[in-house]
Task: structure prediction
Amino acid sequence: MIVNTETIDEFLDRRSADVEEAVRTAAETEILPRFRHLAEHEVDQKTGPHDLVTDADRNAELYLTGVLGALLPGSIVVGEEAVHADPAVYAALQGDAPVWIVDPVDGTRQFVHGDDGFCTLVALARRGELLASWIHAPARRQFATAVRGGGAFLDGERLHAGPPAAGRDLEVATSHPDFTTEDQKRALLALRTDGVAPRPCGSAGLEYLAVARGLLDATVFSWEAAWDHAAGLLLVEEAGGAHLTLTGEPFRITGGNALPFTTARDEATARRIQGLLTAR
Result:
């Protein structure tokens, strides 16, 4: 079993490429063959009509659970579908063992409707600290990676988010109205002000990638599910961005955050958005 951060660093030096290969294989064998070819019996609802799961989600997560657990003995996999089946699995984020955080198909609704705006998200964390992440948008042929202290990369090119251009509205992707309560909708109204251009988000993972690339200024999300945020948060951090909750603290993947929270391409933008949200 991995027993210290230095050993995990060594693991990442040796096996990051194997993790990437596993993510690519999951997409090639379980996700892409079903893209735009889903049969009716391969799509189910979880909590409602806007919360979908497909055979691609289930099978890709099962594959990644087996491969990632074998790559890092003693690690635990916290996957979206496993947590849906047994919420107690989520508690592993609070433990001492290394944890793989997996969203097999982030943007399942887009996937079901034949839109290419979906991705697979994998992050490695320990004791609440994000250590590495992998984001694969297979239909767009994009693969982003990050290692804490080692930078963020898209298809081998280093990412630098940089500050927004002066004099234009901030483009901010927010929690989709289908996934917000009435109280959260009212909170997000604070962004409807001069100098800010909010819009509903698509796949959270791809929105984080857009922030890391400097193509989107910020996100504001109102839910905590670690599989949606972990990989993207580290990618944005390593590209020079920042994330803040309503209390001005960084978002914690272990939970207990003051929501909604923002992730932005630089610290100043994060503080500007956080200030709007707390002034409501």
